[in-house]
């Protein structure tokens, strides 16, 4: 891997300000072609315990620094990320598979959390409370929760780290991160730049390893850990929540989704199609807020499908570093097998493949961008998060009925509404049981707004002022006369 700054390529764990080997190593491969990118430290539960101990020891000094002092270090980290953005994007593309343009966008998006929270930590205001007793003075202050542990996913290996670590560090917390083993190089590169920025030893730590259950138990059950934050599947999230319960930790969980995309008869079809492509095929559909169920009013169904088919046909598939590529591989073979199974199940139940529907010859992890119609609510593809490049279209007639169908899921992460009628748009946005709603757009994530879901899609929020509040405890202070 050729980089302008080869020092960004790290393969050891980063614990207590040191780059440490583990007893073994684990391979990291390019999902596009299987090429070996390197071997990272295969850390253990003992390595995770060492990282937690380092974070615990570093917390008193880091938390006592002024907000301005912490902000200065974080802004240096932000600038170093921006200065090395091309190298970071290349690392991300090679280990994750997304097109280089998408990877570059993720690096900038990820860095924005560091900049924003560096500024937001100056506003950790408390309150003076009008007292119930003239002889007492009441107030509240905000203080950092303590050691924060994070488990982050492979689909956004840069931004999902900064979205958690930036507000934690800005608040005065210290951090231990376990990145997905498919994409550890992005996490280690971020730590190398954090080290250069001047983050004190122990304030940020990364442990990579194949022993996910063992490492996970330390990060969720060690009594020195005050808060645990996770992005991943609902099934795994539930297990981790149960483990956190033993020490009653604060938690943030960003879990699975089953996002509806509703196209009303008064929608601008060009806008709706472009929004659908943006939310459905980005990162080969491997996005928690990607469209999963596309509901189109019967009067505009055929027009929408025709235009969407043309857009899907125009997508260029290939290695993420190739010029003009719109979609890269999926992360591993079992993801391809899963989406293939969902398509086959839908077709067997009466759905029709309009385009795609098969594995591509580019490599074992490539699946064709796919459009299927005739989908019904009882099919697996309508009930499960497909997490792949499959646009599954259903028809609807009545507004109330489509809202009911959209809400008929245990998930509640994101939803999309396409309508030029402002009254209808307001009605539907308020009626949908989701944490985030996008109207007439397919892209809504931003540093300055809260990101998170309802129901089994998680608890807590990341981003915005709500994301900062997740890393504080509010302390009530009562002073007698």
From TrEMBL:
It is an enzyme of class 1 (oxidoreductase). CDD domains: ALDH_F5_SSADH_GabD (cd07103). It comes from the Bacteria. The keyword S-adenosyl-L-methionine does not apply. Its EC number is 1.2.1.-. Keywords: Oxidoreductase. InterPro entries: Ald_DH/histidinol_DH (IPR016161), Ald_DH_C (IPR016163), Ald_DH_CS_CYS (IPR016160), Ald_DH_CS_GLU (IPR029510), Ald_DH_N (IPR016162), Aldehyde_DH_dom (IPR015590), Aldehyde_DH_Superfamily (IPR050740), Succ_semiAld_DH (IPR010102). PROSITE patterns: ALDEHYDE_DEHYDR_CYS, ALDEHYDE_DEHYDR_GLU. This is NAD-dependent succinate-semialdehyde dehydrogenase. It comes from Microbulbifer epialgicus.
